[in-house]
Design goal:
Radius of gyration: 12 Å
Shape: globular
Helix content: 40-55%
Strand content: 5-15%
Strand order of the largest sheet: 1-2
Order of helices and strands: EHHHHHE
Oligomer: single chain
Structural class: mainly alpha
Distance between the termini: 12 Å
Length: 71
């Protein structure tokens, strides 16, 4: 998948646990895990906004586009 989720990197930089972030932004740890693993098919802008607010970062710090060489 050409979109890479770097949420683990930001969590480590902010010294925050997934459980704490999930609590702060109001989603389950299971849904946060799906997002972190890159298995999510979509993310709501409101969720992305809450993550960026909680981690004091920009969307580009979390989501990265990697060109697919198969095209």
């Amino acid at each position: 998948m050409p979109i890479v989720v770097n949420l683990d990197v930001m969590l480590a930089k902010r010294k925050m646990k997934s459980k704490d972030l999930a609590e702060i932004i109001g989603i389950t740890t299971a849904n946060l895990s799906i997002l972190k693993s890159g298995k999510a098919k979509a993310i709501r802008f409101s969720t992305l906004e809450a993550i960026c607010d909680a981690l004091d970062c920009q969307p580009a710090d979390i989501l990265e586009y990697i060109e697919d060489d198969n095209n």
